[in-house]
Amino acid sequence: MNEQLKKLIELQEVDLLLDRIRSEMDQIPKEIDRLKGEYEQSAASLNELKKKITELQVDRKNKELELRSKEEELKKHQSELFSVKTNEAYTALLKEIEEGKKLKNDIEDRVLAVMEQEDALFTEEKIKKAKLAKRKEEVSEQQRELEDKLQRLKQNLQEVQSEQKQKIGNIKAEIFKRYQRIREKKDGVAVVPVADKFCGGCNIALPPQLINDVLKGEDLVACRNCLRILYLKEKSEGS
Ligand SMILES: [Zn+2]
Predict the structure, then answer these.
(1) Which of 120, 160, 181, 201 has the greatest CB tally within 10 Å of its CB?
(2) Is 183 helix (H, G, I), strand (E, B) or coil?
(3) Which among 7, 25, 18 has a CA at the least distance from the CA of 158?
(4) Residues in the chain where the model's pLDDT stays below 50
(5) For the whole model, what pTM was predicted?
(6) 168 CA from centroid of ligand 1 (Å)
(7) Ligand 1 centroid distance, CA of 237 (Å)
(8) Domain 20-169, CATH among 3.40.640.10, 1.10.287.1490, 1.20.120.80, 3.40.630.30
(9) Cα(26) to centroid of ligand 1, in Å?
(10) How much is the pLDDT for 186?
């Protein structure tokens, strides 16, 4: 095989590895953001619940005040019963007391209903709080792991980058430029094998003459469709 072509294939292996490392590195901050966002959403939902509980508490306190003033009013009316002069006034006062009692019972029922709601929300709050605390630990653990992974990838990247530099040094400048141009346009793959008379890059059928040229190995031969540089897999490599 053409020596330069061999070196291009080696370089491309390293370049593709670098691409993978970089894309993995890119994913990590996004993943951390996603985890944090998810946690913040749960925290916000707990805050909403707390707000609802406070509203219910205010509501209940207002109702309790209303209840107390109703009770005062009833007491006052009951003591007035002894001082009314006429039967009519007495009957009217009794009627008012009856209505007052009914109202008082209504308020008591409503206070109880609010208390029940509060209890349900308190239970929910307790569960959510516990879940959130657990999640917080999980998220920081996951974040630590991701940051460690990023560190490892950075180190790996540096190692592979120095390998890449070495490999580039073995390739003629104009061939390297051509390789880079194709790689930029073709998703990082500039050198492809001939796969059973088809281009391993774009799958178009290759003319026999072109395959012969690849076989001769004198010059770099490109697929006329996708312009990628072609090579034949050697027997020792399988296929
Ligand atoms: Zn092609």
Answers:
(1) 201
(2) helix
(3) 18
(4) 237-239
(5) 0.77
(6) 24
(7) 22
(8) 1.10.287.1490
(9) 30
(10) 95
